[in-house]
Structures are given as C-alpha cells and as structure tokens.
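Q: Predict the bound structure with 4'-deoxy-4'-aminopyridoxal-5'-phosphate.
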Amino acid sequence: MTKIEPQPGIMQIKPYVGGASSVEGVANVIKLSSNENPFGPSPDAIEAFQRAGRELHRYPNTDHASLRAAIGELHKLDPDRIICGVGSDEVITFLCQCYSGPGTEVIYTEHGFSMYRISALAAGATPVKVPERERMVDVDEILKAVTEQTSLVFVTNPGNPTGTMVSQAELARLARELPDHVLLVLDGAYVEYVDGFDGGARLVNKYDNVFMTRTFSKMYGLGGLRIGWGYGAAEVIDVLNRVRGPFNLSMAQQAAAEAALQDRDHVARCLSENTRLRSWLAEALAELGVPSDTSCANFILARFASAEEATDCNAFLQEQGIIVRMVAGYGLPHCLRITIGDEASCRRVAHMIGRFKGGVP
Ligand code: PMP
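A: Predicted complex:
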C-alpha cells in the first residue's frame, strides 16, 4: 500500500462517466446521449484533418495563430485574447488551476456541468453549488453565495442539461454586480444553437473579470477531435497560457477546426434542422404527456412523472437500441436528456416513448 496521498480534494471526485455508445446485442444503436451533431462535421473539416495526417512527424505549432485568427475574424474578437484547448474542458481546467486553489470557493449552479466541480476539486478549491429556479440559473442565488473566498463563478448559457437560457439582461446584471475579485465564466458550449447570440463576448469586452468558453464539439460536429477555446481579458489569457502545454493541439485538430469554422453553409443547415426537429420532438413528447422546458440547445430535457418512470423509460429505450441520457447526477432524476438527432432518430425515439407510455404516436 502506497503512503503517498493525493491532495484531499481528489478523493471527493467521482470520475466523469460519459454517455454509453453501445448496447449489448444491438447492432444499430441510435445514440442521443452526448449532444453530438447527427450530421457530423463539415466535409471540409474531414479533408483538412486527412491532409494534416501527411505531416504527422512534425510537431504542431504552439500558438494556434491561424485558428485563433479565424475564430477572431468570424466572431469579431481580438485573436490575442483567445486561447485554444483540448475541448473547452481543458480551458475550464486551466481556469481552475490558475484562479482557484486551497482556501478558495468555486461557484456553479444546481444543474451545472460536472467538470466545474471536478476541476475545482482537482485544484484543491471548494466547489459551492447554488440552487436554480425551476431549472433556470438564478442570478440572485449566485450573488447571495459569493464570499471573500469566491474566485470563480461558472454559468452555462444555454444550460446543459436544462436547455434553458438566462436573459442577456440578467447576465449583464450578474457581470455588473459581481465583486472584482471574482472571475465570471460564461460557458458557451451550446451558443451556436442560439441564432445571433454572442455567448457573452460583449460582456467580456466590457468587464475584465468576465470570460467566455466555446467548443467545436457540438455545432461543428468535432467532439471526437477535442477542440475548444476561451476568450477573455489579455491578462487572463496571459495567465492561462502559462499552464497550457506547448503542444496541446495537434495540427490535425487545428486544421479541422479552422475548416469547420469556414463552412458556414454546413452550420446554417445544422442550425435550421436542429431548430425544426427540436420543436417537432418537444411537441410530440408533450402530446404523450412528457413535457419539457423550451430548449435553446441541441437537446431537450424530457420530464417524467417520477424518477422511477424516467429510469424505466431509459431502460425500455435501451432495449430498443436507443441511448438517451439519465441526468440524476445533475439533480434531475425524473428527467431524460435527449439529443436532437436526424429526422429518423427523432421519429424513432418519439415512437418508442409513445409505446412506453402506452399509446403509439
Ligand atoms: N461545457 C458544457 C456545458 C458541456 O456540455 C460540455 C460538453 N459536454 C463541455 C463544456 C465540454 O465540451 P468539450 O470539452 O467537448 O469542448
């Protein structure tokens, strides 16, 4: 038995468990559990990835200059204030590593993404969970929870797994009212699904203590490649770059992300299909007695009468080869999170939930 002890926060972490991708004995599963883009990435991204494969003996560049310039141009942001990471997960880790630690508190909301707690504990900080109101981030509850020890506040907008959105006015109020010693992190993993929303970029421009994270894993269909980015004040970016590994993104990641960014037609098609199928699925399930909040993302949070019913429905769907996400770990045991798939998958999951509820839709 080793005498070496990890720092105390580590043993409070339950390792992250991702959505399953297979069901034993079922050949063609429909996977609607990880908020992936059912249409995949742009073909241009796949081609760029393959082209980069010819240079595998070369180290990648360390500064991601070309990718940052492309992100900056598209979103009208200063590329020098952008940092790229291995998924936005890595950017979240950098933030906790640099700005929290023993003696500090990291605030996240009741149904917030599990990586906030994991990264805070890994940094030796104390995670502080604050209540939401009816599956919606509550700015007053966050402000109430802030202490002298608070270093970071994480807010996902639109939320996961809720799909709900805090209004721009409320976000602005939060940014304005938080004390200077707190960095507000706006996690924009699902921003691309909200046409015209800047994810909080304007607030970052206005306040040095606001930061925004984004990802290529959702709308850009590159979850398997692991690319995310963050935008913040120049001095925050300088701090984060000190802990970033020099070669954290391969050339294949950088090239694919840049190509994906340029294919605006693909993004527009995925956005309109998501919007159309999300309304269709929400309505179909509501007719079956399974309501959901209006979702602003690429999934809906289907609410069942009880945790038992949600668990039974999940098991039934699995038997039918459909994988959705149980979200009991996010404080929502009576809900299932269902990613918006392509049309056939949406119809199939609605049909099977209809069968589960006892009437074929
Ligand atoms: N934030 C939120 C709210 C998410 O749902 C996810 C993906 N599950 C992430 C961040 C991390 O995404 P990635 O690391 O793939 O960029």
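A: The chain has twelve helices and twelve strands.
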